[in-house]
Amino acid sequence: MEKLLDLISEEMKRAFEEAGYDRELGRVTLSNRPDLCEFQCNGAMAGAKKYHKAPLMIAQDVAEKLTDSDVFGEVSAVAPGFLNLKITETFIKSYLNEMARSEKFGLTTPVNPKKIIIDYGGPNVAKPLHVGHLRSGVIGESIKRICRYAGHEVIGDIHLGDWGLQMGLIITELQKRQPDLIYFDDSYEGEYPAEAPFTISELEEIYPTASAKSKADEAYKADAMDATYKLQSGVRGYRALWQHIIDVSVADLKKNYENLNVTFDLWKGESDVHDIIPGMVEEMKKGGYAYESDGALVVDVKEETDTKEVPPCMILKSDGASLYNTTDLATILDRMEQYHPDKLIYLTDKRQELYFVQVFRCARKTGLVKEDTELLHIGFGTMNGKDGKPFKTRDGGVMRLENLIREINEEMIRKIRENAETKGYEVDGEAAAETAKIVGLAAIKYGDLSNQASKDYIFDMDRFTSFEGDTGPYILYTIVRIKSILNKYIEQGKKLTDLVIGEPVNDSEKSLMLELAKYNAMMETACEEVAPHKICAYIYDLANAFNHFYHETKILTEEDEQKKESWIALLTLTRDVLEVCIDLLGFSAPDRM
RNA sequence: GUUCCCUUAGUUAAAUGGAUAUAACAGGAGCCUCCUAAGCCCCAGUUGUGGGUUCGAUUCCCGCAGGGAACACCA
Question: Straight-line distance from CA A466 to C1' B58, in Å?
Fold first, then answer.
């Protein structure tokens, strides 16, 4: 279905053409003076030079051709040459009814859908998720959903950090603590136990302990490196122990991501490409791309047009060991071979920008990716505390993600209880907790996603839990209001199906309709620019338009059945659009709050 | 040191080169016998600085000041 702006631009272009001007000048845009008009066209000013004519004269010529238009109800040419436009009630009504009937509200889906792999989350096993992981998960999940909704085939991969020295450290510390474990007996040839010899909380304590020890103690570090080597070279007991670490850790990660409503299609990690690294390195050498520099193996990636220094991309460290670059490149190779994607999207902290420039160039140069495969790194900003510095707990530590979520949820339960009390109804504990979880998640996600991803933003617990203004809970509250009306309507024995939206009867209703009609253009932009914050801005405007309409219109007590049905249809569409949008942002609305 | 990014109201954030820069919070005033007041409504307040391009600049270009980040054996 064509976008509203395209349809009305077409009408305007026709008028420009009929008046003897270039039709391309007839591009219509949203009004930035809503007090004067709904839409505007600035083509007359752009054409002034070409036709050596005052812009206002051109605008008047064009306006004359639109006097009996079905699309524009009001057209006025004003100084210096703006065309101020209002569209007819009939036109907007038909547009919305078509939208309501169409799949995805008439969003145009691509002729050639792409296969996209999106790499986000990126946690390390055996380490708890902390607030730093929040953005990658929240933004990545939203982008995944947006691309999928837009019609592409999307695969989300968590890309676990499960292979490096950290694993050797954990194994070493376990050996010190429990040297008699069967895993350390080289002569053992039987089956290893199915149960892990540790719990997730032990694991989370072991890693930092081991890490601290290795920094202070050379011998300890040597042991850890040896353990890493044994693991990577496939010693049975070490592999079995490693598998336990992965299993225990992944189970915990799944639980945590589930609480965030974040899901991955693939749970692959660095370890999955271990076996293909030697072959890849060999190819790079053979192709003449990789050479030795200061003992390390590198590939030059600087280009003549660079204004800045782009250091070579390191493939192997001087001790021959692989590093982040190596596994990332091997992962690209693996993904190309297994999935043949048209596009790879990476979500990380924006500080890794230069790093990804190096890796992408290296991948292209060495032929790991096809010419027409797009590589995109989306760097997001830091989540800061109120002081503008990276978010910390009160005592200066790194805050665990589950603690952050718990704090928000507790505050939310308090608010729900308080609200129930002032309104005088009972709320049982379980229902309150369930609602709190839903609303809390919306607060966190909307708070994050409503900012441009690339910018740092301030996570202000007080503001996020205050629930006033431009927040997730405000959006949810609006949806709950609509649902409540629709439910009451159904309770009257009526049905929501087959209702038709009529012409708007007042300004607030027309505003709501115009807001709904912007949906397609907004969604297209949000997809193209991979910009979830545009969806946030849109649903905030839409919710505002609805609340304004709601305030002025008594819907259920309306006696004119036709009017009432039209409003119910309009509300249904509003609810559906809002719910689709919040789903793309990765949260949902409760039935009441 | 080199390079990149950022600077919008008291605060946090928006704005394909278009008219009077948009909201939220905080501040001040109003609206619940009426579909959820987590709402609605009114008031007050902003583009760091100096140039340039343009009919028109928060937006594009150059300089300055202030803030942040990156710059091969971490990820």
Answer: 30
Which nucleotide is the nearest neighbour of A525, by CA and C1'? B16
Give the CA-to-C1' distance from A552 to B40 in angstroms: 9
Residue A590 lies in a domain: no
Q: Is there a domain that residue A249 lies in?
A: yes
Taking the CA of residue A136 and the C1' sugar atom of nucleotide B53, their distance in angstroms comes to 40
Closest residue (CA) to C1' of nucleotide B71 is A309
> Residue A98 falls within a domain, yes or no?
no
Answer yes or no: do A450 and A547 share one domain: yes
C-alpha dihedral over A61, A65, A71, A77, to 10 degrees?
Answer: 20
ipTM over 0.90: yes
Provide, rounded to the nearest whole percent, the portion of chain A with pLDDT above 90: 73
Q: How many CA atoms lie within 13 A of A479 on its CB side?
A: 25
Closest nucleotide to residue A353 (Cα to C1')?
B70
Out of A259, A292, A322, a domain closes at A259
Q: Which residues contact A381 (CB under 8 A, 6 or more apart)?
A: A135, A350, A451, A453, A454, A455, A456, A457
Q: How far is the CA of A525 from the C1' of B56 (A)?
A: 26
* A468 nearest nucleotide via C1' and CA: B38
For residues A442 and A420, the answer to whether their CB atoms sit within 8 Å is no
What is the pLDDT at residue A397?
80
Number of structural domains in chain A: 4
Using the predicted structure, report yes or no on whether residue A434 has a pLDDT greater than 80: yes
Domain span at A295: 116-161+268-384
Please report, rounded to whole angstroms, the spatial distance between the CA atom of protein residue A47 and the C1' atom of nucleotide B55: 11
Q: What is the mean pLDDT of residues A24-39?
A: 86
State pTM to two decimals. Answer: 0.94
Nucleotide nearest to A350 (CA to C1'): B69
Q: Residue A284, class by beta-carbon neighbours within 10 Å (0-12 exposed, 13-18 middle, 19+ buried)?
A: buried
Taking C1' of B12 and every protein CA, the nearest residue is A458
